[in-house]
Amino acid sequence: MNRLLLLSALLLSTFVSAAELEKRILDGANLRSELRSAKTLIRLGNNTDAAEKFKTLAHYGLKEAQFMYGIMLIKGTAAEKDRIRGLSWLYTASEAKQEWRGIADKFFAQLSNEEKLQVKSKTDKYMRFFGMRTQKVTCRKETRTGTHIRKVICVKIKGVYTPYYTEEGELTANIRVRY
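RESULT FIELD:
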């Protein structure tokens, strides 16, 4: 009985603290602009600032940012080099684009068995926090006019609050995107 009361109190405190979380409203156009800005920073050689922008956007569930941040971590062009986190971001991003999974698989093949287990564990965690379902992201394929080039466009569903997690899994805010 005491366990049941303790569990009930714990669950209630979780719901109360989640209700008190900061609520942020983001402009979808600003998210796309931030993504372009991060790419420009890379071209200008400012990888540290680019990595920070990609990291923030990756936490919002933007697949291209997750991919770019993962590549930067793997190659060490971000402020740090971390193949485990980098590959976990690549696998999380690959929900949107099958070619990205192929790239991740090539890096994955180079890891030790212990590192592979770490990547699998961290990828599961990232999918729970930053995956399409949790972050309410939808993707579609679009063909550019006059070409046969197909591009994957991913956006957050507008008007729906989604959780904003840190990489450690701490829920810090609820985000809603408007377009």
